[in-house]
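The instructor's notes for this session suggest beginning with a concrete chain rather than abstract definitions. Hand out the sequence below and ask the class to guess, before any prediction is shown, which regions might be ordered.
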Amino acid sequence: MSWGADTTGLRGGWERTGEQEHSEAIFPTSSFSFASAAEAAARFSGDEPGNIYSRFTNPTVRAFENRLAAMEGGERAIGMASGMAAILATCLSLLRMGDHVICSLGVFGTTASLFANQLSRFGITTDFVSPTDPAAWAAAVRPETRMLFLETPSNPLTEVADIQALADLAHENDAWLVVDNCFCTPALQRPLDFGADLVTHSATKYLDGQGRCVGGAVVGDAKTLDEQIFPFLRTAGPSMSPFNAWVFLKGLETLGVRMRAHSEQAQALAHWLVDHPQVERVFYTGLPDHPQRDLAARQQKAFGGVVSFEVAGGREAAWRVVDATQMLSITANLGDVRTTITHPASTTHGRVPAEQRLAMGIHEGLVRISVGLEDLEDIQADLDRGLSGSA
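After discussion, reveal the predicted structure:
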């Protein structure tokens, strides 16, 4: 049965149990029992399908995986304990000592630290390049390059990479293209449709949508996930809990309508910020002067819910804006129905060396807003307290 995106988010990926429940059941169990020793042996060997142990088989987690895969246009998804666990599992499953990665400069600070500081300990090297310069990606390719990794739009400057062009480059060089789809989600963008091999998610963000749980996922073709990434999950255990999977299932039900609303709110806030006399620069893909606006319009159904802006006066001025808010949540999380505000240089990218932060374009006067679903006038009034010095 072929369904639209919103219907898939509401009804895809699960089957009712014998109890005929209307909403998905939670299976909060550590293990599953078997009818016989022979059945147990067959399950453990893989000769017979079925549940074994919730580290790697659980019906609630599987329902989340199936639904997310359907929404992303993938054959298979694997739920993980966090978004970073999903990226780590993907890298350690597909890369080995001596391999080389090309990573976008415009990634979440912890992602940059993972490639620069952790994977390097295992002999995996990484070069960071501009997400918007295909020539720089091509120039960085080596014989040992095995992965291209990016976020698009980027965190926090909303730079947009050409997924199809980078997919072509990766495949010409026998490498994987992995795209973090956190900012858009499958409601707005499906990287697999543009040639990406794998998609990663921090389900903590928009997939949940209400800041309740931490989780992650990787989506792609069944062969890669079953033969290369699932064995890592089964052995290493960066598993998603059944309760969190159930929460994420509830989040996926409203993902489409939320992402459209977030985008509409962010578009309006971005234009308001452009006109504010205390704001020096606004970063949002939906603005007419955004350098990749046309590319974003081709790859995305809408422009997303994250807006960043710069104020004069560096960290002191940016912190003053943040501290003056009375309604907005001062937190580094994003993708919440409640608007959140943070200072990237000292939070999300605080562990990135200052020189690399500057290369990323993350200056001390930068503030990031994840635009929620409150009344727009209330969001604007709260920001104006710090911007206009009326706190």
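Then share the key points. The chain has a mean pLDDT of 95. The radius of gyration is 21 Å.
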